[in-house]
Amino acid sequence: MQPISINKAKEEDLTAIANLADIIWREHYTPIIGPEQVEYMLHKLQSASAMSQQISEGVSYYTLWLDELLVGYLSFYTKGEALFLSKIYVLSQLRGQGIGQQAMDFIKEQTKLKGLKRIQLTVNKHNTGSITAYERMGFKKTDEVVMDIGGGFVMDDYVMELFLNDS
Known about the structure:
Blueprint (H helix, E strand, L loop, with lengths): L4 E4 L5 H20 L1 H11 L2 H9 L3 E7 L2 E11 L2 E9 L8 H15 L4 E7 L3 H9 L3 E11 L2 E11 L4
Parallel strand pairs: 4-5
Antiparallel strand pairs: 1-2, 2-3, 3-4, 5-7, 6-7
Helix pairs in contact: 1-2, 1-3
């Protein structure tokens, strides 16, 4: 497993992250939620301006690098007594090489540094590959949520949580 670099995103990184999101989302989510909702969500949640707004509201974004190549990104924020993992994405051709696991180890470390004991996320109910990956990492389904995101679209998700031990 080749080690990755994880760097806190700066304002000047947001366009590159948005471009990466465009590639990843269109490939991964179009079969799950359709091209219209992908387009809507890219604009609403993954544009450089949307990410800049999220950062101003307390969301932390990080870039994932393999050598000099931007291969993924993640974002999270504190939500109550949990670290809420909002986004974790890796280019499809590099999945299965330990990048996601290294990113998750970083997220666990950040959770502990914040004095929190659990990580929470939401995942589309039809995103079976990601659900399986999260379950392999120890996440458990704890709830279901349907959220109206505007534009005539909803997110129909499972809430998943990972409780960290004190080690």
